[in-house]
Amino acid sequence: MKLFNLIIRLTCILFTLSLFTACSDDDEAAPKINTQGLVKIKEGYALGAATKVEIYTQESPFVGFNKFFIALFDSASENVSQEAEIELMPMMQMSQMSHSAPFVNPVFHQETHLYAGAVVFIMPSGEMGKWTLGLKVKNKGKTGMTSFHMEVEEPETERVYSFMNGEEKIFVSLVSPDAPETGVNDFAVAIHKRVGMMDFPAVTDYQVKITPEMPTMGHGSPNNVHPVHMENGIYQGKVNFTMTGLWRIHITLEKGEEVINDEKYFDIEF
To answer: Whole-model pTM?
Structure first.
């Protein structure tokens, strides 16, 4: 009898351990997305790719450089899809014409299990036209499409500006800082050009210089680092805010010895 009871106990222990191991394996096999600090604004399905799509942002879409964080899930298993490809297709439909906008196709980030990309909306939604954001998803050998309406608002302060450089229209958008604070902050801008209504390639061969100014106080700041091109038309540097308030970041764009534009700036207040 004692031997029988011992066998029963050992069987129960092994069964419990097998359940625990199975649960652990399931947890490892089914990673979760991390959306802390983000808000889900859209969801739907990429028909043909058997993939559910969720779109997250840090704030409502606006005229400027919008960071999009996209979660993909297998429609059958509901597991996170980690090896897909996403192509963004922003489109403004106007009464007499349509046009696209600059964008950065999403790349998967292992830390969050989200695909991070961006779109530079160059005008607001309204009477002039309506924005949609199309996604072409390639997942496990299947390709599907989906599209979402985007209500794009004009921000209180300018976050993208444009100018003509010869026959090319250049767009410069503020990328960071997202949450400015006193001290040295990451500072980045994205530069694109329009070569057609559907083609807005990155500009990668400019030199960017920044001059921070506090217009209400009449001073600038030391220890700034001019942005340099990293990838996808994004130029990364550093800006030093020595105190809170309104800061004006003057932008000078050069190509070789030629000054392309030095008349624009971004206002940042915190």
So the answer is: 0.88
